[in-house]
């Protein structure tokens, strides 16, 4: 399922390590979800200009496995902004260490809410 990667800079790029595996030796889906949450959080914090929290993850699709040593690149796109919330689409792509080809491995839609200093929802600033 080789596609071309998105035509923009990544939110995060990391390497899948042996400590990130499940009992079968594949990269644990929870690790990949955590990386996706970090990528979405980077985008949400920048858009909201401050503290944010994940409140939902929808439509997560694991398309291909990730292997130890793979370079994992995550792209985050702002899909919509509400009064206090943002929806961010995240795609994760893998590249084997010894290859140039990439493939999309996971995608999901994250919802974040902007928070004030007391942890209560606050309006997202106008862009």
Short description:
The protein has 127 residues and is α+β, with helices and mostly antiparallel strands. It has one helix and five strands. The chain has a single domain, classed as Thiol Ester Dehydrase, Chain A, CATH 3.10.129.
Write up what this structure looks like:
The chain is α+β, with helices and mostly antiparallel strands. The chain has a single domain (12-114), classed as Thiol Ester Dehydrase, Chain A, CATH 3.10.129. Helices cover 16% and strands 39% of the residues. The protein is built from one helix and five strands, in the order βαββββ. A five-stranded antiparallel β-sheet has the order 1-3-4-5-2, covered by helices on one side. Strand 4 and strand 5 form a beta hairpin. It is elongated and about 45 Å long. The model has no long low-confidence stretch (mean pLDDT 93).
